[in-house]
Design a protein that fits this description.
Blueprint lengths: L2 E7 L5 E6 L6 H15 L8 E6 L5 E2 L5 H4 L6 E6 L17 E5 L6 H7 L4 E5 L1 H19 L24 H11 L4 E4 L2 H15 L8 H12 L3 E2 L2 E3 L8 H11 L4 E4 L3 E4 H7 L11 H6 L3 H31 L9 H5 L4 H13 L8 H6 L9 H4 L1 H23 L7 E3 L4 E3 L7 H29 L1 H4 L16 H17 L21 H32 L7 H11 L12 H13 L1 H21 L1
Parallel strand pairs: 1-5, 6-7
Antiparallel strand pairs: 1-2, 3-4, 3-5, 8-10, 9-11, 11-12, 13-14
Helix pairs in contact: 3-11, 5-8, 6-7, 6-11, 11-13, 11-16, 11-17, 11-20, 13-16, 16-17, 17-19, 17-20, 19-20, 20-22, 21-23
Length: about 625
């Protein structure tokens, strides 16, 4: 039977009619076909090919491996959501080698956004000819030391407390594999594939600097494995962040030598050796020094930190948009965002956030009926969660930018030990593997992002408190029979409380390891993991505020807000209806969270912000 399935792309005006010849086609095939047509209209490299589909008639979720004839009727409308790599579900890119784009890396210029893209499985890596020359020169220094019978830590000695133990030449290859396998002591859930791929890509980036002394043969094999999208299984727990992320990187390194578990698009999960062979690849046999070069480094901390930062940047921008919507719903004044106030305290973040608020709220460029009607009232000042948005959101933004700049340095730094000094033909032991820098930055990041959630929950409380908002209690008519948004505020409060515990800085802790040789450690891996947890919680908190703010705007109807905020309200109402009578709340919150993660709120208001900036510039001239 021939089916024709109309597919509505969420958050756009596009609907595509997808013909199915047999009805045996899967929902995933439907989504990919619709997505191919979508990309001809919208070109957006930041959108990850992760789909979620629902029947429009009853909002029930469709699984990607469902057959069309089993779950849909002919001409039955479905809605497809495009999800970014920032979603916390496990996702597996299954695009072909030919479809993957090629990125040249050099150990010098990678950014957090670059690394997040490399985690998607849609990119292959190559190195420049100059980079390969550095790698050859670095390896030559190691080979010379071996041939000259010099004793150098990490090449022909034991490790840690065994640094004084000399290893005979005929056991140097065995030393590498024993080191890696003994360090495979990670525990806990494995990283999702995107994150494991990010760790892998970042390790290649650091090895490409030439300081590690790995051979061209080994690095070419590692790149070939990455380019086939073979992903090692890496447990998320077990690193203390000095000497680097030993356990996670050991699991990565072991998989490349054919030990442990690995995933690839052609095989799924399996034994690493089998996965490599079925992809036409051979396991790596590590040469002297390469075992230590592979496991010493801060790439687990830094890769997870890069994702946390990219999500935090998107979150902070959208927090300003949602806050502006709440200001309107609460009929707050725009006076608190006057440029004179903020120029007198010239912090970058504070002035940037104040400018964003001015560009979204009532102005000569964007007028608001709500503001015009309520600008004369008995209120003298708004509560701090309204009045102090630039001061609190501003330091959160500055914190994120501080962490981003520091993490970018870490991403392009040589962090193993010992390091090969090519210019002096020397190998020097030091401590670049210590994760204190990224650990401190990510602890600070968590604290900064948490405040976005704390402020959001305060505004949510204002919105549901009738005596403060002058709106129906809990934003619902017929209160008593309806509870409205009573319990979402509970959820926001619970998440803020969780974050207060997660914001305790793990980098203030240190437990000596390796029999006291490594007597101070960074605990940076936990800094990175909990920074991601805080970001995820704040995404949920802001989603709750978004729902409440939109409901407040509905309750003020027929008065309208500014054009940019009307656009946000319309965007939300495309997939989330106004709250009239009580109904199942959780799917609405889930949808709002997806909106936050997609980054679409910011993309929606960007043209309006630019229009405001252009207009005010013209007025000044």
């Amino acid at each position: 039977m021939v089916f024709c399935i109309p597919v509505k792309i969420s958050h756009t005006d596009e609907t595509f009619l997808i013909p199915c010849q047999t009805g045996k086609e899967t929902i995933e095939w439907i989504c990919r076909t619709a997505y191919a047509r979508y990309t001809k209209i919208y070109s957006d490299a930041s959108v990850c090919h992760l789909f979620m589909a629902r029947r429009v008639s009853d909002r029930s979720r469709l699984w990607l491996d469902d057959c069309v004839e089993q779950v849909l009727k002919d001409n039955e409308l479905i809605q497809m959501d495009l999800m970014r790599a920032f979603d916390d579900q496990q996702t597996n890119s299954i695009i072909t080698d030919e479809e993957r784009k090629v990125v040249t890396i050099d150990g010098l210029n990678m950014t957090p956004s670059d690394l997040v893209r490399l985690g998607s499985g849609e990119y292959q890596i190559e190195l420049s000819s100059d980079t390969w020359e550095l790698i050859r020169r670095g390896r030559q220094v190691v080979d010379n030391i071996i041939s000259e019978k010099k004793v150098v830590y990490g090449i022909n000695t034991g490790f840690g407390p065994f640094a004084k133990t000399i290893i005979p030449d005929d056991q140097l290859y065995e030393l590498q594999s024993r080191l890696i396998l003994s360090h495979c002591a990670g525990v806990g859930e494995p990283l999702k594939n995107e994150r494991a791929r990010m760790v892998f890509a970042l390790r290649i980036n650091v090895l490409s600097k030439g300081y590690s002394g790995v051979s061209e043969e080994t690095l070419r094999k590692a790149i070939a494995i990455f380019n086939k999208s073979c992903v090692p299984e890496i447990p998320c727990q077990g690193s203390v962040g000095a000497s680097g992320d030993l356990a996670p990187l050991a699991h990565l390194s072991a998989a490349l030598m054919g030990t442990g578990r690995m995933w690839s698009p052609t095989t799924g999960w399996g034994n690493a050796k089998d996965v490599l062979e079925r992809n036409g690849l051979t396991p790596i046999v590590y040469k002297p020094k390469e075992g230590l070069a592979m496991v010493n480094g801060t790439q687990f901390i830094t890769a997870l930190g890069a994702e946390a930062i990219e999500r935090a940047v998107s979150l902070a921008r959208q927090a300003d948009v949602i806050a502006a919507l709440s200001v309107e719903g609460l009929r707050g004044t725009v006076r608190a965002f006057h440029p004179g106030i903020h120029s007198s305290r010239p912090y970058v973040g504070q002035n940037l956030v104040a400018q964003r608020m001015r560009s979204l709220l009532h102005s000569t460029i964007h007028s608001s009926e709500i503001y015009e009607k309520h600008k004369v009232c008995e209120k003298v000042q708004d509560p701090y969660s309204i009045r102090c948005i630039p001061q609190v959101h501003g330091i959160a933004w500055d914190t994120i930018m501080f962490a981003k700049n520091l993490i970018k340095v870490e991403m392009n730094s040589a962090t193993d030990n010992p390091l090969v000094m090519i210019d002096t033909n020397d190998i020097v032991s030091g401590g670049n593997f210590h994760g204190e820098y990224p650990a401190k930055a990510l602890d600070y990041l968590a604290i900064g992002v948490h405040e976005l959630g704390s402020m959001s929950e305060c505004r949510a409380t204002l919105l549901v408190t009738g005596t403060m908002s002058k709106l129906p209690p809990f934003l619902t008519n017929n209160g008593g029979l309806n509870s409205g948004f009573m319990i979402p505020q509970y959820a926001a409060a619970a998440l803020v409380s969780e974050n207060k515990v997660l914001c305790h800085p793990s980098s203030v802790d240190s437990i000596p390891t390796s029999a006291g040789q490594e007597d101070h450690v960074s605990m940076g891996a936990w800094s990175a993991r909990k920074a991601l947890m805080v970001v995820e919680n704040v995404e949920k908190i802001l989603a709750i505020e978004l729902l409440m703010a939109c409901q407040a705007i509905d309750l003020l109807h027929p008065e309208t807000t500014t054009p940019p905020l009307e656009a946000i309200h319309k965007l939300v109402r495309q997939t989330i209806d106004k709250w009239d009578d009580d109904r199942f709340m959780a799917p609405l919150m889930e949808e709002a969270i997806r909106l936050i993660k997609s980054g679409i709120l910011w993309k929606t208001v960007e043209p309006f912000i630019q229009q405001y900036l252009d207009g005010t510039q013209h007025q000044q001239n």
